[in-house]
Amino acid sequence: TTPAAATATTPAATPAATEPTDTADPTDTYPTGTDPTDTADPTDTGTLDPTTEPPVTAGLVTVDSSVTDSRAADVATMFDTYFGGINDKDYDRVGSVLDPAGSVDPSDQSQMNALARGTRSTTDSDVTLTALQDTSDGLLTAAVSFTSHQAAGDGPRGRTGETCTAWTIHYTVSDDGAYRIRKSKASSHSC
Fold first, then answer.
1. DSSP states of 81-133 as a string?
2. To 5 degrees, how large is the angle CA 145–CA 148–CA 151?
3. What is the pLDDT along the chain (191 residues), one digit of tens a residue?
């Protein structure tokens, strides 16, 4: 399903992730953990350094550790309202974070009905805010990646039979005292 605030542009396919490569030393002849020169503490249970900050999360949304903008937690909360509303089919909640000057006017019932039809079987997960920056016109650009699961027939435009879609969307976000989605540009590929 095309996300509600996505523009009508045809999304470009995102290349599939590459498989991780083995970076082990090929001359290593000792099984892991048995190298006699290994000086690691055998009692170390792998707990995190207590000074390591846990990832910032707001409900469904995780803020990637590379996003250091002080507004990230509040923007993530806005996206939690949006994605949580889609998952719960609560379009009043979704509408509360849509900018009326944007691509979907929450006060226009026909636009909200179209949004509901477009996401009727969608459940979104693995939502991550991956970038946040100011634009030259006083708005924000927020990059978000997520996975949508939808019924066959409700997939993205041109791939309606797709039931799992990986999305990267660049949202334009306004701030009139509250963050709101104005428009977006999406790219996606099958999971």
1. HHHHHHHHT-HHHHHTTB-TTSSS-TT-HHHHHHHHHHTTT-EEEEEEEEEEE
2. 165
3. 444 444 333 333 333 333 333 333 333 333 344 344 444 444 444 444 455 566 789 999 999 999 999 999 999 999 999 999 999 999 999 999 999 999 999 999 999 999 999 999 999 999 999 999 999 999 999 999 999 999 999 999 999 999 999 999 999 999 989 999 999 999 999 99
Extract the tokens encoding 110: 């026909």
d(CA 22, CA 175) in angstroms, rounded, equals 45
Angle subtended at Cα 102 by Cα 129 and Cα 92, rounded to the nearest 5 degrees: 75
> Which among 62, 55, 56 is positioned nearest to 147, based on CA atoms?
62
State the pTM of this model: 0.73
- Tokens in use for 125? 């997960």
